[in-house]
Structures are given as structure tokens and as C-alpha cells.
Amino acid sequence: MNQVKDYMKHDLDILFVGFNPSLVSGETGHHFANPRNRFWTILHRAGITPRRYHPEEDFTLLDLGYGLTNIVTRPTKEAAEITREEYEEGRKTLNEKITFYKPRIVCFVGKGVYLEYSKQKRAPWGVQDTSVVPHVMDFVAPSSSGLVRIKVDKIVHLYSQLPDLVQQMKKKE
């Protein structure tokens, strides 16, 4: 397995946070590399990227102001394989990363990711009323996994809110 690197820097517009790398991502070393994962299609259809990027181009999202990381680094076949200990360690590490880099928005790619991170029992889709890290907007979106039963058009609609939210955050600076 290859390490799936974080792509983060200061002054990001959006940091996308997934559960953990898939086995395909672990084999290739790239985020959202499983062909059944719709992440790259969703970003393009939602107006976040100018075209549909490919997993091997994951590092180029930094040029657009977007970063990529996961709450857990170990690749698995499905998120159900992640242990409590891995989530707890990942939650602390993710909080440190967000506190250090201070992206404008953290988009949790999956409600379960946000619930593990925030230790909340439930959360609505979209912008959360309170953020875990002050001055960083928490945004909860459906997972892009092909296993998710939410229609892709609804997922795209939720993600399409992000560009306007970025502009709102920039106006507040």
C-alpha cells in the first residue's frame, strides 16, 4: 500500500475531509481513486472545479485553493472497518491540522466523518451552526462513495453551495 498524502496549505478555501483511503487509493497513492467513487464528478458538476479531474491530479487541487485529507489514514475496503481507536486518534490529528492551516471551510465528505470528528450525535447537511475550530466553517456533505444511495443530483446540489460560501467567508476577512 502507498501512503495517500495530505494536500494542505495555509489560506485554503476548502479542505475536503474523507473517512479514509479506499484500497484502490492505497494502491495508487491518490485520493478518491476508486472508479465507483463520484468525488471528482461531483466537484465538477457542482461548479467547484472547472473540469472533471482525475485521482492522479489530486495534488493540483491546491492550485485551486482546495486541500484533501482523511480522518483516518489506513486504507480499508469500507469505513465500517475503522476502529474506535483509529477514529479517536484521527479526530485529534485532524483537529490539529485544521487549527494549524485554518481553511475557510472544512467540507466533510460524509456525515459520519463529521460525527466522528465533532463527537455530535447528529448533524444536518450543509453549514453547521457551530464550528469545532473557531473561524472555520464546518460543512457536512454526503459521501461521494458509489455505495451511498442518495441521488447524485441531490449530492451535487449540496456541494454547489460551497463556491458561494467561500465568497461569503472571504468578504468577512
Automatic annotation (TrEMBL):
One of its GO terms (molecular function) is hydrolase activity, acting on glycosyl bonds. InterPro entries: MUG/TDG, Uracil-DNA_glycosylase-like, Uracil-DNA_glycosylase-like_sf. Transmembrane segments: none annotated. Keywords: DNA damage, DNA repair, Glycosidase, Hydrolase. It comes from the Bacteria. CDD domains: UDG-F2_TDG_MUG (cd10028). It is an enzyme of class 3 (hydrolase). The keyword Nucleotide-binding does not apply. Residues 7-151 form the Uracil-DNA glycosylase-like domain. Its EC number is 3.2.2.-. PANTHER family: G/T AND G/U MISMATCH-SPECIFIC DNA GLYCOSYLASE, G_T MISMATCH-SPECIFIC THYMINE DNA GLYCOSYLASE. This is TDG/mug DNA glycosylase family protein. It comes from Priestia iocasae.
